[in-house]
Amino acid sequence: xxxxxxxxxxxxxxxxxxxxxxxxxxxxxxxxxxxxxxxxxxxxxxxxxxxxxxxxxxxxxxxxxxxxxxxxxxxxxxxxxxxxxxxxxxxxxxxxxxxxxxxxxxxxxxxxxxxxxxxxxxxxxxxxxxx
Length: 131
Known about the structure:
Layout: H1 5-12, H2 47-52, H3 72-78, H4 89-105, H5 112-126
């Protein structure tokens, strides 16, 4: 590692008085490439949870042959948004135990996320907050 006057000045806490670079030239053919990210299907859209819910039969099918480009609402349905809630101790313990027992049985839903998602989704649908 080479010690330049600018590095020494920085270490000593002095002003470097060196002009900062304003632009970086990129050689032709080496421009950054945009990448697309495939989102994994959410638990609510899995085949198992569709069969277990009666409301799933009311939805139109989302087959690949009929779907040309996903709508913004379809993409947003796959994005998980952090929400913080506080639960009573007994309910948190029951949730933890339920998820561990489901995991041991290899039954779905087997994560706390999936259990809460399913329970909350059922409640919101029952009270007509979800279509």
